[in-house]
Design goal:
Layout lengths: L1 H11 L3 H104 L29 H6 L2 H25 L5 H63 L9 E6 L10 E6 L13 H18 L4 E5 L7 H13 L2 H7 L9 E5 L3 H4 L4 E8 L4 E8 L7
Parallel strand pairs: 3-4
Antiparallel strand pairs: 1-2, 5-6
Length: about 400
């Protein structure tokens, strides 16, 4: 009789209004989901853009560093050339001074010969006789045309040609030596051109160094900002994960629950190394995460997931059979925690976490989990229509007193 009354009551109930309400709610949630997906897409695009900018800045910094090394190498080469030119100039200057000393010695020897001829009263024919000033330092220009024809004829024509050829050969050797010892008058111009080129290269090098420093400053600024954002999230998660893990593992026999914490392997450069996650269930000693059982790993993973969610809360969770590896006791703990964090419960209790709560969509096959839900959605196969259909059931009317 009770079942008949209940059936009659259920048949008379107006189901269209709740369905319309749920459809409206479903459409609203779909719009919000689309908006969140768009925001997520934009955030991913911005993150990718920033990452690309960082890569470009790194590449540009490497290019400038290579250019800087090339400029330094060019400057070293120019300095070596400058030193070589300076050494060549010094060598030529010494050779010129040596030749000038030899010329002075020859002129002194010539004056000695003229003085000896004067003492022996030998008159030498000259082209223009100098004034008799009593000084022997006057340079004489000798005239050999006044020699007697006898002395000129004594030498045969063939011998004369031979002597002339030898004389020309000696003159050629002496001229070649003079040209070889003559200083390069263009060396000073070349030196000035090298100095100008060195100045231009130095200016370019300084400009490249300045730009490299600016790029390095920008890169360091982005790197520091990335480090600050990461440490902000890490500090928040590392502070909240132990409290969440305790809530998921505490019981009447173990009211304090377990212990969980995070450690950075490198606090100065966290992106170069990993993060160590340690979870110790109640009454168990410290051990690596790999040595925990499947259920213990699941509870630890859920604690980490909820701790990350507390930093940047999302409107709702979708959990797909997270209770598969849990026993009934742990399933009840996880379900109770999720229920305590629901929007309605969080608004009523206002716990110390300071969160506003969240909605959870959980896929589960365990009745000990979904009997604590606010609504159920079941999926079954319609054999007549060869398709799947859904059933919904509102549990808010059967809240526990």
């Amino acid at each position: 009789m009770i079942l008949f009354c209940r059936l009659e009551y259920e048949q008379k109930r107006d189901m269209h209004a709740p369905i319309a309400k749920l459809n409206n709610t479903h459409e609203t949630l779909e719009k919000e989901l689309k908006g969140l997906q768009e925001r997520e897409t934009r955030a991913k695009a911005d993150a990718e853009h920033i990452s690309n900018q960082m890569e470009e800045l790194k590449a540009e910094a490497e290019d400038w560093k290579l250019k800087s090394d090339e400029c330094e190498t060019a400057i070293e080469e120019l300095k070596k050339q400058n030193d070589s030119v300076a050494a060549a100039l010094a060598k030529l200057d010494r050779q010129v001074k040596l030749k000038e000393g030899q010329i002075v010695q020859l002129r002194s020897r010539q004056r000695e010969i003229h003085e000896k001829c004067e003492l022996e009263q030998l008159k030498l024919p000259t082209v223009n006789d100098p004034m008799d000033t009593g000084s022997s330092s006057q340079e004489l220009v000798l005239d050999y045309s006044q020699l007697s024809e006898i002395y000129l004829k004594e030498v045969q024509l063939s011998d004369r040609d031979k002597l002339e050829a030898e004389f020309k050969q000696k003159i050629g050797i002496l001229m070649a030596e003079i040209e070889r010892t003559a200083p390069n008058l263009k060396a000073l111009d070349q030196y000035e051109a090298l100095q100008t080129k060195e100045k231009e290269v130095s200016e370019k090098f300084e400009a490249a160094r300045k730009e490299e420093r600016e790029v390095a400053d920008k890169y360091n600024s982005v790197k520091q900002r990335r480090y600050e954002l990461f440490m902000e999230a890490f500090d928040h998660i590392s502070k909240g994960i132990d409290k969440i893990y305790k809530q998921l593992t505490k019981s009447h026999t173990h009211p304090l629950g377990g212990t969980a914490y995070l450690n950075l392997e490198n606090e100065d450069e966290p992106f170069l190394h990993g993060i160590k996650y340690t979870a110790m269930p109640p009454t168990k000693r410290f051990r690596d995460m790999e040595q925990l059982s499947g259920g213990e790993k699941t509870v630890a993973a859920l604690a980490l997931l909820f701790a990350i969610h507390s930093f940047r809360p999302s409107p709702f969770f979708i959990l797909d059979e997270v209770d598969a590896a849990l026993d009934n006791l742990n399933v009840a703990k996880v379900a109770g925690f999720i229920r305590s964090k629901s929007c309605e419960r969080a608004g009523e209790e206002q716990d110390g976490d300071g969160g506003c709560g969240f909605q959870s969509i959980v896929i589960s096959l365990k009745d000990s989990f979904y009997d604590k839900a606010e609504a159920l959605v079941g999926v079954y196969r319609d054999s007549e229509r060869s398709c799947s259909r859904t059933l919904t059931f509102d549990l808010t009317k059967y809240k526990e007193a």
